Amino acid sequence: MAIAAQVMKRGALRRPTATRGLMSWFTTVDHKRIGILYGTTAFMFFLLGGIEALVIRVQLARPNGEFVSADLYNQLFTTHGVTMIFLVVMPFGAAFFNYFIPLMIGARDVAFPRLNAFSYWIFLFGGLFIYSSWFLGGAPDSGWFNYAPLSTDPRFATELFTDTGRVAAQHRVDFYLLGLQILGIASMMSAANFIVTILNMRAPGMTLLRLPVFIWMTLVVSFLLLFAMPVIAVALFQGMFDSLFGANFFNVAGGGDPLLWQHMFWIFGHPEVYILILPAMGIVSEVLPVFSRKPLFGYAAIVFSGIAIGFMGWGVWAHHMFAAGLGPVANAAFGISTMFIAVPTGVKIFNWLATLWQGSIRFATPLLFSIGFVSMFIIGGLSGVTHAIVVHDYQQTDTYYIVAHFHYVLFGGAIFGLFSGVYYWYPKIYGRLMNEGMGKLHFWLMFIGFNLAFGPFHILGLQGMPRRTYQFYPGYGFDFWNMVSTVGAFTIAVSTAVFMVNFARSKKNGKKAGADPWDARTLEWTMPSPPPDYNFLEIPRVHHRDDFWHRKYSEDQKGRPVPVPVGGAETPTEAEGKTAHELGIHMPDPSYWPLVAAIGLPLMAYGVMYKMWWLLGAGAVILVMGLYGWVLEPASEEEH
Questions:
Q1: Potential cystine with 400: which of 432, 450, 460, 594 (Cβ 3.0-4.6 Å)?
Q2: Count of CB atoms within 10 A of residue 226's CB?
Q3: Which domain holds residue 346?
Q4: Are both 115 and 225 inside the same structural domain?
């Protein structure tokens, strides 16, 4: 320690000072840049997951499809599910959390900036670790739920044929087990960071019931992550020991219980559903009031409904297991609790509709995606209620009806809501508006393509088409609707291409947005676009729930909003264009140690998986070295 202290004193571990250029992205601890990194990475995985989905739909476009083999199909649908849930929807929500929590609560950064960077790099390396499986014997192939004994019994391992004979692709499931462990660490760190930030760094006057609904949903999601991730971590550790070291947690022949995996997975997995959907609910709750020019109807009801959804989500997990033989008492109890959880969701929906009712509505692209979210989520929610009817669920389970339900919830819900957030906050992030014509084309193509792709799944499921099958036979009535679904999937792909072109062109050629292009209500719109590195020149003092709105408007005798003579967003001052350092505002300095520390985790995972203990040790050394350098960094950069 004494030697390390001397090294630190001489400045050998001094932090880099670059704030611009490529290297600055590897060392940044700025919450806004980390939000952009999260969003960009999640979108790259969205494209990969979309390509996997298109291959699946080509395979199923016609009876007896031979585009891919059964083995490759199993890898594709497994990796598609893992990608869309853990590498797209969750980190897309984290992108918005990272960028906008401090801006919306009146803070200059999150509570732990380096921990924030550490969580991003862990997420990135966890995703790359999972995808490296495609080059190392094959991707996970047991479904995104990884049910035992399919995932643990060597008799079920996929067999590969090589020049030297037949070998089992035994490590496919290990990429799943260890990859999700790495991603779980990132989620836990982010959750703790966001909770501390929201509870301790709010601007003066911003009480809990003055928080934007988006921040409330972030808080609920963070607590869900904090309590749900340890459950799946235990299950993943047990699965790892079964797979790599011959343990018998889920092996019936050795006294294990495969239903134990299902219970632990869904105790995590059902709160996970709300982890995925609540961020989109928060975004919609911010967008609807702005574009209907009305306060959010029933603010308190929406907030407490979000809390109720988070709480009640822990009591419904076994509705995924009605066909597992739990017995009538357990099935009835979980069926009733599943019906009850629809109540706070319905409260939110009626409040959103009431917000739009008789509003001065502007049908801009963010609002279209929010309305798309509400309408598609209603369909997904109603089909979900049918799953709560146990005898009905017996007919639905393992059919395409289930696939239709969760795509209407997670794509029609979460993805539509996240795209609404992209269009809404794009001018704040980049200082320019996205093209409205292309935005609306994107929406209508995606809306039509989505319903063409997943609407037929309801019919196919009720006709009896099983899910997770790589072929279907002619003559069962599946042909037409599968072709319609494939056309819809490619329509979604076209809509995504339109979005990408619009996104890229608008960064250079989009109309300049100014600080407040939407006439918005929350604090992030009080600052220039894009925001300075320090966010707020002075920490604001909050007096109302929609404080920014009240700065811009008062009411006449009839209660109608009237613009005030002076107010609104910050105007250019002598501080504009200056850095935090030039203004005397202390901000955290860049650091490469979070990146260094994160590199150690996938190396450790490879070492465990292949029993290369030297690689495990090397990864552990890199992890400890990164954490050690992080802890010993100087508190602030030396003056020059």
A1: 460
A2: 16
A3: 312-472
A4: yes
